[in-house]
Amino acid sequence: MSTAKKTAQKRGQPRRTLAGPVVQPIPGESLTSWVGALAHQQGFEMKPLLRELYLDRLGGLSGAELRLSDPVVRRMEKLTGIDTERLHAMTLGRYAGNALPHLPLFSTDGVAVQQWHKGAWFHHSQARWCPKCLRGDDGPRWLLRWKLPWSFACVDHAVYMVTECQACWDTVQFRHDAPPERICENWTDEGEWSYDLGEPCGFPLSMCQPVPVSDDSVLVLQARVNAWLDGTPTHEDRQLVALAAVLIPLLSPSMIRRGDPLLRYAVRSPRGTSTRQRKGRRPWTDSLRVAASVCASDWFLRRRYSVDEVADCIADLRFLDHRRTPWRMDVAELAYGPSLRPNPYVEPLVHRGLITLGGWL
Predict the structure, then answer these.
(1) How far is 359 from 350, CA to CA, in rounded Å?
(2) Which of 75-89, 210-224, 248-262 has the lowest mean pLDDT?
(3) 218 or 12: which carries more pLDDT confidence?
(4) Rounded to two decimals, what is the model's pTM?
């Protein structure tokens, strides 16, 4: 068949539209997860659906999940019946006032987005999830807060977040313009020596076995962090997050003497403690280390220490563990991350040589 006939047939086909009622987003769901559920319900291919919703104008799903423009929101509300407030709540823009203070105003501004990605504290491609949440009646639906390092435990199921596939023991990476994976798509070394043919892992992510939280105080602290993320924190919650943000790379075993023993193990092990270890993962990509940092911050703050006393205590405990190497904070991290908003704990730690400013280690 000639190209002209194919083009004529394509133009003659009626344009598909969404049929109601559409699948509803669950509370706290991310935009990419809901769009994936919508495509599955409506039997749409992803590219035509993105064009129908005008999401292709924002650079695809990865750009749309940063912020939604007014024309796109009006189009989506007209076609799906989902109100504007719920649509905006599924984007990272809901955290622009706290966890992501320097989120670019326009997702199509490639330079601004690229600069912000380097220092922003969110998982642009690396997944973390609660397998028990993925086994829900609504199917595998991914929550927006899972993209932030501050989600270290699931309060509903009392388990720690999973950050690796438990079949191939590798991190799971999101595809930028596709809904979240249901199975691990990492390529294994199976058949590596047989004509260089590998095969994907294929392990269902919902079948991973999460580690239960043995200390209820961890869940209480996660609930406090969630209140900060949702925009309803107390002054003490803000102080907790501010101290934890700078303590994550400075944590040492002596700071975790009580509570869940798994957190002490996580700090003692080399997981996430080196800048260039494990494919360049930063310390805040390890959910156990973030949980340990929040617990240690709560311990400091409950003793009513001043800012200088907290810095002295951190220096003494790191010296006790023979950890003298300072943490080198990148300029982009300093500008875009949560360490300064302003953060009263940064300057004393810089003066004591525990933090130095510059490039990556």
Answers:
(1) 15
(2) 248-262
(3) 218
(4) 0.86
> Does residue 277 have a pLDDT over 50?
no
**Cα distance between residue 269 and residue 221, in whole Å:** 23
At 103-136, the pLDDT tens digits run 888 877 778 888 788 778 888 788 899 999 999 8
